[in-house]
Amino acid sequence: MRSNLFSSVFGMVILTSAAQAAPVDPYRITANEKAACTGDAIMLCSDAYPDEHRLLACMASNRSSLSAGCGAVFDAGLRRRHLNTSAQK
Questions:
Q1: How many Cβ atoms sit within 10 Å of the Cβ of residue 22?
Q2: At 44, is the pLDDT very low, low, confident or very high (cuts 50, 70, 90)?
Q3: Which terminus of the chain has fewer CB atoms gathered within 10 Å of its CB, N or C?
Q4: Cα–Cα distance between 54 and 58 in angstroms, integer?
């Protein structure tokens, strides 16, 4: 009985740790970035969602078509994250 309890608790700890370690938002997109760019992302890159790597690449390739507000937030976000979109997948 004790070994079954230990196995159950150990399994729950492993599952909880794995769930916490899984990156839900690898770029840690801020609420401000989402507010400024959601419309642009839907209009220009809806086929890339929810893959954030593809979405970033799509937004970068459509940089000249981004709205002024999204473009400013997008550029600032790239600088803050030290990202070079030409190296993205």
A1: 7
A2: very high
A3: N
A4: 6
Report in angstroms the alpha-carbon separations of 84 from 1, 7, 12, 36, 75.
55, 45, 39, 20, 10
**pLDDT tens digits for 56-70?**
999 999 999 999 999
Q: Given phi > 0 = left and psi -120 to 50 = alpha, else beta, which region is 28?
A: left
CB 49 within 8 A of CB 41: yes
CB 70 within 8 A of CB 36: yes
| Residue carrying structure tokens 């890339």 | 48
Q: CA–CA distance from 48 to each of 6, 51, 80 (Å)?
A: 43, 6, 23
| pTM of the shown model | 0.65
What's the rounded Cα separation, in Å, for the pair 75 and 73? 6
